[in-house]
Specification:
The chain contains nine helices and eleven strands. The protein has one domain. The radius of gyration is 18 Å and the shape is globular.
Amino acid sequence: MKKIAAALATIIALSSCSTVSKHLAVNPSPQTEIVRKSEREGIKDLHRLVEEVTLEDAWVYIPQTEDWEDIGLEAKAEGDINSVELDVDKVKSLAMHYSRLHSWHIHTQKDSLRFYQSFLDHLPQGYTTETLRDFINADAAIPSSDDLTFSIYFSCLFDQTKKRDDRYLVASQYGVTEFKPLSSGLIFLCQSTSEDDLPTQANIFGRLATHQYHQKKMIKKIYAAVANETSAQLFENSFMTITFWPYAALPSDLK
């Protein structure tokens, strides 16, 4: 569930030509896709995909060109886990040309429900089918350790110039969640770790943050944000902050 494979070692860039599409779609093959539309219109596509598809996928949105670049090499399901291997070289290449990249992926409703199917079949005490489904949908809005690892890795890799403005976001059934690495808390990691060792160290920090989660408190905040159509800060420590917005109250800077 909600796992993006942390393939943060160098991945050989594929030579296949990109195609142009009108709508974002989950792409189970290495063939890359480009969609040209505003970020707000792309978010509508992501919301639709969250509700309709099972497999995960990932994209980079480029504010300067309004292009959505598919960065998933291969979306696949293995047992109860869906994952998408990321084209890290493609992200690096885009970062060389653009100072602002918004990295997006989806946590799909069908995958979340499938992961919790045994609990839906045998309801935990105090839950009805409806309340458990609400819990599952809210839980899908919370970034995984792999999500945080990805953001920390690229934050260290790209932010050394201090001239970048990258964002990391996930779309789920209830809304959009941004997980933002804090440079002030990652200075030692970023400056003292070689690029070869960075994937491992970023993974340690990603897992550390998720171990500090208070899941029930985070889910209550998501419920309140959806009900009140407002944002909610779900988590903050010295190197990561996580903010949730329901689709009815997206921030104005996601245009």
